[in-house]
Specification:
The protein is α/β, with parallel strands linked by helices. It has five helices and five strands, in the order βαβαβαβαβα. The relative contact order is 0.18. Helix 1 links the parallel strand 1 and strand 2. It has a five-stranded parallel sheet, with helices on both faces. Helix content is about 40%, strand content about 20%.
């Protein structure tokens, strides 16, 4: 069974780079440009094994998305991996009760290791 990953990132180049890297590794990838788009996909029935979540996005940021996700008992079980350029990413990930985090610029080796841990 192919593991699916939802990448929530507003930067179109980074969204495509992350998605392309994961697809090349054999993952099925869904893309969302902001939290509201991601939430809509989840509420429509998408059930990824992992969500890669940027924090700073327009329309609905990562904090707002995570708040909404945690209100739904089924959606709250999907692991969230914070991807952020913020220097205090560990604190933000802890506040959000995220499962893990990685800082930008992203180490592809670290990203793939973490995705494998959650989706393997």
């Amino acid at each position: 069974m192919i593991s699916s990953v939802l990448v929530v990132e507003d930067d179109p180049e980074l969204l495509e780079a992350l998605s392309g890297t994961l697809e090349a590794e054999g993952y099925a990838v869904s893309r969302a440009r902001h939290g509201l788009d991601a939430l809509g996909q989840l509420r429509a029935g998408a059930r990824p094994r992992l969500i890669l979540l940027d924090l700073m996005m327009p329309i609905m940021n990562g904090w707002q998305f995570r708040h909404e996700q945690r209100q739904d008992s089924e959606l709250s079980r999907i692991p969230v991996f914070v991807v952020s350029a913020k220097t205090d990413s560990p604190q933000h990930a802890a506040w959000l009760e995220a499962d893990d985090y990685i800082t930008k610029p992203i180490s592809l080796a670290a990203l793939l290791e973490t995705v494998q841990r959650f989706c393997g």
